[in-house]
Design a protein that fits this description.
- By secondary structure, the protein is an alpha+beta fold.
- Helix 1 packs across helix 7 and helix 5 runs antiparallel to helix 6.
- A hairpin with a 2-residue loop joins strand 5 and strand 6.
Length: 268
C-alpha cells in the first residue's frame, strides 16, 4: 500500500461540491414545496380538496403526504395499496383519469374515502411521472360550480403534477447522493487492513471510486443536462481566483436581468 491518498477523497470532494452547487441551483423539495403545489392546484380549480400521494417502494403503498382545501386534510397520512382505488389505478397504469360521478365507477374506493371524512362527487387523478418512472398521484376533488371536470382540466392538473415530480426528484437526488457519500466513507473505513490507522488499500479505493462514478452516471443519465453542466462549472469555480469570481458574478447578473426581461415579454 502506498502513502498516496488515492482518488477516493478527491472524488468525494468533487461529488460534495457538485451536490452543493446543484442544491443552490434547484432547492430541494420539502413538504412545504409540495403543499404549495397542492394549495395552488386547489385554488386554481376552485376545488373542495386536492392531495398528493407518494409511492413507498418498501411497502408498495401510496401514502398521502400533503393535502389542501376545506375537505382535504383528513387524507394526510392515509396509506393504500399501489393498485387500490382511483389513485392506485392511475399509479399502476400511468394514465390520468377524470370522473364526473365517482359513485358509479368500480375503481372508486368508498370505504377509503369515508376514512378521510369526505366522499367526493367528482375528481381528477393524474400521475407524477417523468422519464424515470411514476412517483405518485395528484388528485383534485369536486370542482366548485355547476361544471364538472373536462379535458382541459386534466391537462392543467398534469402541469401541476409535472412540477411536483421535478421537485420530488430533485430532493431525492440530493438525499440519495448524501447517503452515497456516507456509505462510501463507511465502506472505506471497513476496508482498512486490520491494525491500520484507517483508510482502504489501493484496490478497495479503486473499486469504491468506480462505484461513485457509476452512481453519478445513474443520477445524471443525461450527460447533456444543462442544469448539471452548470452545477459542474459552479463547483469548479470554488478554486477560482477571487477576482475572476467577481467577473463571473457580474456576467451572471447580466444574464439574470436578460432572463427576467424575456419572461416579462412572454407574459405580456
Amino acid at each position: 500500500m502506498t502513502d498516496e491518498p488515492g482518488p477516493l477523497i478527491p472524488t468525494l470532494h468533487a461529488v460534495a461540491l457538485r451536490v452543493e452547487a446543484a442544491r443552490r441551483l434547484a432547492p430541494p423539495a420539502g413538504t412545504a414545496v409540495l403543499r404549495s403545489i397542492v394549495d395552488a392546484t386547489a385554488a386554481l380549480f376552485g376545488a373542495e380538496a386536492a392531495s398528493l400521494a407518494l409511492h413507498d417502494p418498501a411497502t408498495d403503498q401510496l401514502v398521502f403526504a400533503v393535502a389542501a382545501g376545506e375537505h382535504g386534510q383528513g387524507v394526510v397520512g392515509l396509506a393504500i395499496g399501489s393498485s387500490q382505488g382511483v389513485a392506485g389505478y392511475v399509479f399502476s397504469t400511468g394514465q390520468p383519469l377524470a370522473l364526473s360521478d365517482v359513485a358509479s365507477d368500480a375503481r372508486f374506493g368508498r370505504d377509503t374515502a369515508e376514512q378521510t371524512g369526505y366522499v367526493p362527487r367528482s375528481l381528477i387523478a393524474v400521475p407524477l411521472v417523468d422519464d424515470e418512472g411514476i412517483l405518485g398521484v395528484l388528485e383534485v376533488l369536486d370542482k366548485r360550480g355547476d361544471g364538472g371536470f373536462d379535458l382541459r382540466d386534466v391537462e392543467l392538473a398534469t402541469v401541476f403534477a409535472r412540477q411536483a415530480t421535478v421537485a420530488i426528484r430533485s430532493s431525492r437526488i440530493e438525499r440519495d447522493t448524501a447517503s452515497l457519500l456516507r456509505a462510501v466513507l463507511v465502506a472505506a473505513d471497513e476496508a482498512a487492513p486490520s491494525g491500520s490507522d484507517g483508510g482502504a488499500d489501493d484496490g478497495a479505493i479503486d473499486a469504491l471510486d468506480s462505484i461513485i462514478a457509476a452512481e453519478i452516471r445513474t443520477l445524471d443519465a443525461d450527460g447533456d443536462d444543462p442544469l448539471w453542466a452548470l452545477a459542474d462549472q459552479i463547483a469548479l469555480l470554488r478554486a477560482a481566483d477571487p477576482g475572476q469570481l467577481e467577473l463571473v458574478r457580474d456576467l451572471l447578473a447580466v444574464l439574470v436581468r436578460r432572463a427576467d426581461r424575456g419572461r416579462s415579454a412572454r407574459t405580456r
